[in-house]
């Protein structure tokens, strides 16, 4: 707490995913052999056709501010992608390109929330949703789930969390951190509750859309009675390994898109021009172009689950997408390992860092205090060695 800083930032949590990645980097610089399974970041390189488009954009002298909400031809590529992959119809006025999906979500919180508005977050939720909402004056309300129901909310748990103050629900499917994927039927059942509360806006974060081992991605906006109150968020960070290029986008009701455009016009003036040109090349390609990454993630999921099954006390389910497993480690709470008493998931994650040199993220950051998140966006060699070290540290 620094009294010279605003209450806004003093009351905000540091991003636990980025903090753990920074900590791992720091320890590595000190000479520690840390294996990082904390950051959700594909370890692949950017596909050549995307790199070529970026190089061409530099050579073609793209250099100036872009339209605040994105180049017109990029918006067209996004519209084509939404139709091709999700059967969603949007017009250019409904699309806003931002500096990563993180900014897309921050824009939405800023333009939709008033102080005290409640934001429903099916837990476990992506770490930044709660603080993005809080900074905008919102109140994060976790909707609980458990590993026994694959970390998915049900119509009953959703309805029980709704109050007259509920303004928004944000969820990701495939989910970061649980890897859970909502089927069309499951989303329809949730929609049947939501249609009774027309003031609630749904933010459907579909950034892991292509990293889905069920082969079936479902969007909330596909339902006619949800279309006008759903904002679909997506981006190129995960599917095209373009995390550092910082491009995300939304499709949603025009009045919301216009407000996001206004907001980012005062905050960033729009996303990077070269990355926008490259994103056109990325999105013009069908998902089959990145199937090799999805296949690799699927193999790694099996590897990580097989190795975890061999460690006593760690309970897993089978995630259906993204590149995370979210094991329940509560068996270890109250136990003393190598002289350290484990009270909670944060202690457990710290133990793994200190005694096994493996960086993971505590589930507390995601609203699920019995779990830790392991990202398997890492090489098979690193995954195997990391799990060997974890097993050894715990035995
Ligand atoms: N949503 C989810 C669920 C994520 O895991 C991430 C990861 N960074 C983001 C949004 C933000 O992605 P980016 O800002 O890199 O587009
Ligand atoms: N989304 C990734 C994660 O959850 C990247 C880090 C971040 O943006 O917070 O690890």
Descriptive account of the structure:
The chain is an alpha/beta fold. The protein has 2 domains: 7-45 and 290-394, Alpha-Beta Complex (Aspartate Aminotransferase, domain 1); 48-286, 3-Layer(aba) Sandwich (Aspartate Aminotransferase, domain 2), CATH 3.40.640.10. The chain is 41% helix and 13% strand. It contains 14 helices and 14 strands. It has helices at 7-10, 16-29, 48-59, 72-86, 101-112, 127-135, 155-161, 184-194, 224-227, 254-267, 273-284, 291-309, 345-356, 380-394, and strands at 35-36, 95-98, 118-122, 139-143, 166-172, 201-205, 230-235, 248-251, 324-325, 336-337, 340-341, 358-359, 361-362, 372-375. The strands form 4 sheets. The protein has a 7-stranded mixed β-sheet with strand order 2-8-7-6-5-3-4, with helices on both faces. Helix 5 (101-112) packs across helix 10 (254-267) and helix 12 (291-309) runs parallel beside helix 14 (380-394). It starts with 6 loop residues before the first helix and ends with a helix. Bound molecules: 4'-deoxy-4'-aminopyridoxal-5'-phosphate and glutamic acid. The site of glutamic acid (GLU) has 9 residues, from helix 2.
